[in-house]
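=== Per-residue structure ===
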Amino acid sequence: MLRLRPELGVLCVGLACTPHERPQEPSSPCAAGMVLIDSDALGSLGVPRFCMDVMEVTTAAYGACVQAGVCTAALGGGVGCNLTRADRGDHPINCASWEQAQSFCAWAGKRLPDDAEWIVAARGGSGNQLYPWGSAPPDATRACWDRKQAGTCAVGSAPAGASPAGLQDLIGNVAEWTRGRDQDIGRRGQLRGGSWQDRTYQQPIDERFADSARDEPSEAASVASGLRCVTSPHTAVPEIDDSAWTPQALTPTPDGGLPVLAAAPVRTPPTRPLANFTALQRSPGVADSLWPIGEGYVALDVAVASAIGLTDPLHRPTFPTSLQTFEVLRSLGATVLMSHGSWNERKYLALEPGSFKIRWQADLKSRSYEQVVAPRTLVVQAYGAEVDALVAFALDSGREVWRMPGGADAAFLRVRRLWLDGERGYLLGDRGLAAFDTVTGALLWSGVAVATGCGVASAEDRLVVEDPGAGHRRIDPQTGATLSHIVGARGECQWDTGTWSGTAPGVIEGDQLLAFDPPNADQVATLRAFDLQTGLERWRRAQLGVELLLADHDAVYVARAPELLTALDAASGATRAEVSIGSGYTATVEPGGGAAGPLVVVEAELAGTWILGRAEQPAVPEAYTIRGRLVPQGISRKRVANVPVRVGERRVRTDVTGRFEARGKAVGAVGVALGTNVGPDQGGSRVRFEASAVVLTGQGRYELPDIDLREWELY
């Protein structure tokens, strides 16, 4: 509850103020619980005076904001978050992200301090002293620090560490968020002052971040991240009633407490029509910043990521040399899960992205082909000489929590594929399909027959085993029992990821199964949609490429032609939108994205990374003219004539000078490549050139640089 403090305003009641009397300011320019920071002692930062909270924001105060429905629960550090403990109301709030800190201060009528403001306050009236209280090193009387596993202290527990203005806990207890520095585009949040976890402070105040090793800002929460707020002088702020906050409960788990650190992203229904699907942003080439999206990370330029609302980037150039080759797998709240090594010796670690401290690391010391990140555990296939095993590591500590060996009496000897449905794991092995609990390793059921070459489709408590002979079988995820058959399937098995057929596996979206018929020699086939309950065919769409099949809510994404991404209406199969990628590509559907979501992330061979989603209006295809010229390199000039060139979906031939021109309409990018895939060994073209992509930017006419034409070399 918020109540306005009357003493902070200027009140004239009845005849207390004469008509021409100048109202009197209160004795202090700052609200209760705040002190005035008058100026920068050295004047080097140019900071005007401001009011700052004497104490760090308490758990009870933050809890009141949660109770009011404004703040979200600060649980970013998992186990160890003060908001889960009733006895920590007078401790500082921790596990708060930069966004949560911003929200609280705004609710309290304040804001986060700028980086320079925090530094001025921590200098304690002198520009060259080491600590707010002076030059004496920290100890238990001056700072809540070096507490190992004990956690935070009650605010103000170290009064000897107060600054001359009376500010408490500037050093230690929790690291405090600032608004960062304006020049840090895409790197907004900054943690200052160290925390209860730290043991040494070596930098001067204006270089000291969350701990003695930290040299990068971050926006993610941890058990050490908290906040305090500031205002301008003479600002009225509401009074916070923190007497009735409610601790937040962590969901208990069967093993006694593994926290959820990798929850599946929430899928939200789209708010804009599928007809508005288009290219929203594009990052050409290789970007240095990795941004969390969905269940993984994507490399994007800062401007591109900011435009679609992504936050919490990892800047790979800042990684220590020893970590440059690690693959970033998943955000775990305060840490990032990474892996390194080839399939025959793989290592995993959880890293603090700001300090580059390794929280834990696990060495599988075995070959591994499959891994899945469950909400609480990392489950890895350990390949043995004659038999496999599944091994699970806790995401919060890296300790091995269970092991499921294969064997004569087990559900498998070999594991071909692993995947998840929430905290239920599935394995497809040499003895069929089985389900297991990812937290405890308990086998839920096993022995569901899956023929050689067949695969499985699953989504949100729905499961279908491919079986074109008897009809695909709908399986009960709870028991493994067969519920019904889908009898319209044709041909041979083609979903198994262990055999390369080039055909995308079937997918489940809502109450229907989507699957391709077997393709013809040109890798073109009919897509069919089946009702999961009745097994009947709902609709079909012919003449589609078979290498892409994705779905989300009202959309089915396929490739009508090799370089086109086509969005079909999930209810009818009708085309609603189409984006030209300009080259070969891979694509994933990621939840979120706000009004533009769900997002489709495309990694194009020639045109970089694309973010596709729903704009405010449908995209209008651009009418384009593309012109180019082939220039001989080490071959006769005559051979530039009559060369087949593919421009988008058009096929043209060069004139005697090697020039070509093509017209068309498209959204996205247009590929330019040799117009045949048949080489001289098959009686085809004896020349070739490197393919390229023309990104359509509204110019209408595009002149390509000269294109080198060379002899087709057989390798």
